[in-house]
Specification:
Blueprint: E1 7-23, E2 26-40, E3 43-49, H1 62-77, H2 87-92, H3 99-117, H4 121-124, E4 132-134, E5 137-139, H5 145-157, E6 163-166, H6 173-182, E7 188-191, H7 201-205, E8 215-216, H8 225-231, E9 238-240, H9 247-256, E10 261-264, H10 266-269, H11 272-284, E11 289-291, H12 298-307, E12 331-332, E13 342-344, E14 354-355, H13 357-363, E15 364-370
């Protein structure tokens, strides 16, 4: 049975973070998130566009995503008899870039399809054999090293299986040295968000002494070749994030030995269809993957949980509890992490959570329907 989308509803929500989050390209205090609701036969599916408020992580941001979904993506899926959610990717593939905007719509259609069929999203995408997923946590740049160490202690005590700390020039070697002294045995990784160049090789080589799981995306967001050169000079595995936007790029990076680990973000690669293809390429080459986060609301977080059930997601991802980011989430129940650092995978239809419509309405700053 095909899927004929009757309307696409766009909502922009404003969600203040419980604590600022800082990376190498800036500090965030609140999120302006674009949500996508697709409706067919009286059933709604929900997706989230994971673009930030500014075009710093990649070229997309809240305003661009709104326009792309409204003017280009929605018209290409409305009233068209989709054979299944997988077909969404081909319907929008001629739109150059804007993968997060396209991925938000695709995720909503996957959710709709699985709610109609009564199966869980995790099972539908080919995962679902796991009853729980392992969780890590991402900690932004802090105002001081003692503040950072205190936050890490809180998350370690909460049970998280892996700690990721953001780094940038001037907040790297000496800071990690103090963190390692305080926590000699935790699984620790560093995320640079493209803050370095090959001129920093000597500095990055100093990180080898700290037994890091990986250094994530140290060089430019669109650079694979320089990562080849850097990885050859490091003992620590490089994990690529920003510059892997397709299975083809993953294949190139792996064959060139630009990395030993890949972070898969649903929005960055344009949705479940391409995320599964990246996963399969990595698995075929023996490269482990994990699910990265983009400060998502509960909707994006729920999709990440489903994605993380695929076989080769063998490393703890950035899928953490709702309360780490939001005083109140827009889904019910909120995502919770167990004392051993795991999240139970929902088994209900779709992504397995319900929308808190009253709260969603209270944080919505604009809404538009395309039909």
């Amino acid at each position: 049975m095909g899927i004929k989308i009757e309307r696409v509803v766009l909502r922009q929500i404003r969600m203040p973070l419980v604590h600022f989050f800082e990376t190498s390209f800036g500090r965030t205090y609140e999120r302006q998130i674009v949500l996508v609701e697709v409706v067919a036969d009286g059933i709604s599916g929900w997706g989230e566009v994971t673009a930030g408020e500014n075009p710093f992580y990649n070229e997309e941001w809240t305003e661009s995503a709104w326009l792309i979904v409204r003017d280009y993506v929605a018209p290409r899926v409305l009233k068209y008899d989709l054979l299944g959610p997988e077909e969404t990717a081909s319907r929008t593939s001629h739109i150059r870039g804007h993968l997060m905007a396209r991925g938000g719509v695709e995720a909503a259609i996957w959710d709709l399809a699985t709610r109609r069929s009564g199966v869980s999203l995790a099972k539908q995408i080919g995962g679902g054999s796991r009853t729980e997923i392992g969780c890590g946590v991402s900690i932004g740049i802090q105002d001081s090293v003692p503040q950072l160490i205190k936050k890490i202690e809180t998350e370690v005590n909460a049970g998280y299986q892996r700690i990721k700390m953001k780094i940038k020039p001037g907040w790297d070697v000496d800071v990690i040295r103090e963190v390692r002294a305080a926590f000699p045995n935790i699984r620790l990784m560093a995320d640079a968000n493209s803050a370095y160049t090959l001129a920093d090789v000597d500095r990055l080589q100093k990180l080898d002494e700290f037994n890091l799981m990986m250094i994530e995306q140290p060089l430019a967001h669109d650079e694979i070749i320089d990562h080849v050169q850097l990885q050859a000079q490091l003992k620590t595995p490089i994990c690529l994030d920003e510059c892997i936007r397709s299975a083809h790029q993953a294949e190139q990076a792996i064959r060139l030995k630009a990395c030993r680990i890949i972070n898969i973000k649903l929005g960055r690669v344009g949705g479940f269809y391409e995320a599964k293809r990246v996963h399969d390429v990595a698995e075929a080459h023996g490269i482990p993957v994990w699910c990265g986060g983009m400060l998502e609301s509960g909707i994006g977080r729920a999709h990440n949980i489903a994605l993380s059930t695929l076989k080769n997601f063998v490393l703890p991802g950035d899928v953490s509890a709702s309360k780490r980011y939001w005083a109140r989430d827009i889904i019910t129940p909120a995502v919770e992490v167990s004392a051993k650092g795991t999240i139970t995978v929902p088994t209900g239809p779709g992504f397995g959570y319900e929308i808190d419509h009253d709260f969603l309405k209270s944080v919505t700053v604009r809404e538009e329907t395309v039909s």
